Amino acid sequence: MDTNYQEPAQLLRAAYKGPAMAPLRQWLDSTDVMGAYAVQEINTRYWEAQGRRIVGRKAGLTAEAVQKQLGVDQPDFGVLFDDMRVADGGNIDPANCLQPKAEAEIAFVLGADIPSVNTTAEDVAVAVASVHAAIEIVDSRIADWKITFADTVADNGSSAFFVLAEHGLALAGLDLECAPMTMTINGETVSTGVGAAALGNPLNAAAWLARTLAERGEPLHAGDILLAGALGPMVTLTPGDHVHTIIGGIGECSFTYGESV
User: Which pLDDT belongs to residue 150?
Assistant: First the structure.
């Protein structure tokens, strides 16, 4: 791995404990795809060596509007580790976050490997074991969320935690594209959307993820969890917030950020 990327990788790891750091302009151009994933890869291998276990991947920037905002024409991905999963209905300690936001998503758990670089949405559908409502808690180690594409990729897709509905459904008969999403905080609606927000259909986002990882020699495997991208705007969290998401026809899940107030 290029030694030029070791320093930003180390600084990002240190920033998890705060304070957040300045953007990575010194090391990465704003759209430097290769360099950004090189930094992500360094930290992924570091964390694996520390005993963290990869349980899946997340797709990000699946909404065209967000891609345009960051000046890119593709989604991105990050790694999901076992210690990032929060039980449905569980709590997240604010001490483990810097500037978190929540977004509602559709998630898949795979029942088969997806090794092909030519994977289609139909191929993903065959491999899916269950579909879940999900909430991703995103966070940024970059101060004030002043991120470019390279910043968020290097920072593991600006990931922090995720919640999966305890009970999933078989894919057959589900209308993912038209599934309506409502996310509430403390009972008030804060975000709405629809399944089509994720590249037209969450299966499209999952197929992009499968192809991209296969091209990198890191194909998806049975048992992997896939977060397929936000269905609506992300919302800033405040300690005491109870976050609840309902995705029509698919399910619901929740968590509390700190202790309930």
Answer: 94
